[in-house]
Amino acid sequence: MNNPDEDTAVAQFGKGDKYFGVAMTMVTMPGLPMIGHGQIEGYGEKYGMEFRKAYWDERVDEELVRRHQAEIFPLMRKRYIFAGHENFALYDLTTPEGHVNENVLAYSNRFGDERALIIYNNSFYQTRGTIHTSTEINVGSQEQAHLVRKSLSEALGLKYDSQHFYILHDHKSHMEQLFPGQKIAQEGFYVELNGYQYHAFLGFQEIRDTDGTWWRLHESLNGQAVPSIKQAYMEMLLEPVLAPFENLLYLSAELCRNKRDSKAKASDLEAQIQSNLDRFWEGLESRGYTKVEGALAGEALCESLSLNLPLVEETDIKSTELEELGTPKAVQTASAAHQLCKWVVDSFAPEKEIEDQTWFESLYLDRRIQKVLVDHGLSD
After folding, report:
1. Confidence (pLDDT) at 317
2. Cα dihedral 165/171/174/178 (nearest 10)
3. Judging by beta carbons within 10 Å of its beta carbon (0-12, 13-18, 19+), is residue 140 exposed, middle or buried?
4. φ/ψ of residue 340, rounded to 5
5. Is the pTM of this model over 0.85?
6. How many angstroms separate the CA atoms of 367 and 189, rounded?
7. Which element (helix H / strand E) includes 363?
8. Fold of 81-237
9. CB crowding 226-265: b at 16 or more within 10 Å, else e
10. pLDDT-flagged residues of the chain (< 50)
């Protein structure tokens, strides 16, 4: 990014997204990346080859170092994927209007079963488009060139039948996306980029869909990135348990907040609670959980919620240690969630003897509780 006879990298590229986009491409291109003296620390003094010491009294830019540690150094540890040229391929980004965006650098490489797809928008302006076919690659010799173009699927060695899916991990955001191999082969890879934004997709995990469930997840996500695709997959399979449980959380809190309202409204809420309890029981039993002897019925749960929880207007949040958690409504919801969770733990037993917290988390019930509490204003 700079030589001793040039301005420093900071002077040329700044310390923001443009700098890190260029630094990222440097460490993910074939060849040998070279980092200038003081570049990581953010030094601005220009050093000639004859310099024996620094003349400026500069301080290390800790935030710049931190971003290097988070974004650049992990990629440098993967240099074995990027250093070779045998599987390197460069692509054009074609916009929806059919134009090639010359400001976008897109390329792929692989080493063994490890693959990488790098896309960088070297422009201040937003862009979007599709990557499908590489520029010409010489698969012959220097003396007798044989130029070919490869599809993205071919260059990365992806399978393109209807049963194969790939989980792509975005190095910078740590989010994951699910793509059908067949769709990448036929339509290419669609991407949207802000100014000086980059994607470094690593860890192409191959999935074989034998029962259509991965396709169902792909349709459900519709290209959305999530923290964990496999976790999203498990939550989808557990939806017969999670959906009624989430409803119970909302309904339990609603019952507590409206226990002085008309009997008709209270009765309607209790009926909805019972209906969702039935669905919740069925979902748990289908996964090997059994109702313990003497488990409370739905009516008992409703009575417990009504008796043990104060009204919202009765909750003096400032007089409790819960003040930092959020609004009185949020505290009320947290109390209802506690009652409901205690009832679940007391009423069901897993097929194998495991701790309450472990089986609770194995069903991702804790994540639904967190979602509902945040929805009701509880602070993170």
Report:
1. 44
2. -10
3. exposed
4. -65, -45
5. no
6. 31
7. none
8. Immunoglobulin-like (2.60.40)
9. beebeebbebeebeebbebbbbbbbbbbbbbbebeeeeee
10. 310-319, 321-323, 352, 354
